[in-house]
Design brief:
Blueprint (H helix, E strand, L loop, with lengths): L5 E10 L5 E4 L2 H6 L12 E4 L7 H7 L7 E6 L13 E5 H6 L9 E4 L2 E9 L2 E5 L9 E11 L2 H11 L4 E6 L2 E6 L5 H14 L5 E6 L10 H4 L6
Parallel strand pairs: 11-12
Antiparallel strand pairs: 1-2, 1-3, 1-9, 4-9, 5-8, 6-7, 7-8, 10-11
Length: 231
């Protein structure tokens, strides 16, 4: 593989020290490891090599592989989620939790000020919160398989939509990707899809995303057919 390749991969990711599975793509693996979730959609996931869609240690190994190849390897903290940072452990007043009618306890994961944090301890009207990523400072073990390489611009765009949980119709012509989404989407995600296509999709220089519910201007002559109010 090389930078810029669009590929789909299957993988199982574990914390090496405990063997605990933190992420995977196959339903069979989820059932095997006892982490099956009926609400989750399983299947190979898109990765654009060089696009920062996987951690650095995994991407480095993918660049050494071929389509159809399987590989197992370890990734140290420096090429994964980085070291644990003491400055990300903070004390929060119990009053803040009381205001939101939340009873904190050790192990509880909450979203505080837009960031996820885990409660480490509760004592004396204070709550110690850990804002480090749960996998920070840990060595990870991966099993990875490259399932396919995607070469066609339309399939690239369709796969990118699926990656972000979107559905819609894709057309690519005259170096422009035009997408009509089935449902409304977050404006930030729409811009991200457009910018990703322009940067990483060969032959696409511009991209535009609309939605099926967007109002279309009346065709020529249609305005004259609309009923007129009385004077």
């Amino acid at each position: 593989m090389k930078e810029g390749d669009w590929i789909k991969i299957n993988y199982v990711g574990r914390a090496k020290a405990t063997g605990e599975v933190f992420d995977l793509t196959r339903e069979s693996d989820a059932r095997k490891h006892g982490v099956f979730d009926e609400k989750k959609k399983y299947g190979p996931v898109l990765t654009i090599l060089g696009g920062g869609m996987v951690i650095r240690g995994v991407e480095r190994e993918l660049l050494k592989m071929r389509v159809g190849e399987k590989r197992e390897f370890d990734v140290g903290p420096g090429d994964a989620l980085g070291p644990r940072r003491p400055e990300l452990i903070k004390v929060v007043s119990m009053a803040k939790f009381n205001e939101q009618k939340i009873t904190p306890f050790p192990g509880l994961v909450l979203n505080i000020d837009g960031r996820n944090a885990k409660v480490r301890s509760v004592a004396g009207g204070r709550v110690m919160m850990d804002y480090n990523h749960p996998l920070a400072g840990k060595e990870l073990h991966y099993e990875v398989e490259i399932v396919e390489r995607i070469r066609e611009p339309v399939r690239m765009a369709e796969s990118l939509l699926m990656y972000y949980g979107l559905e819609g119709k894709v057309e690519v012509a005259a170096k422009k990707a035009s997408i009509k989404l089935d449902k409304p989407a977050n404006p930030f995600i729409k811009r991200l899809v457009e910018e990703t296509l322009k940067k990483w999709c060969p032959g696409v220089e511009s991209a535009a995303i609309g939605e099926k519910h967007d109002k279309q201007p009346p065709r020529k002559g249609e305005a004259d057919k609309r009923p007129r109010g009385k004077a």
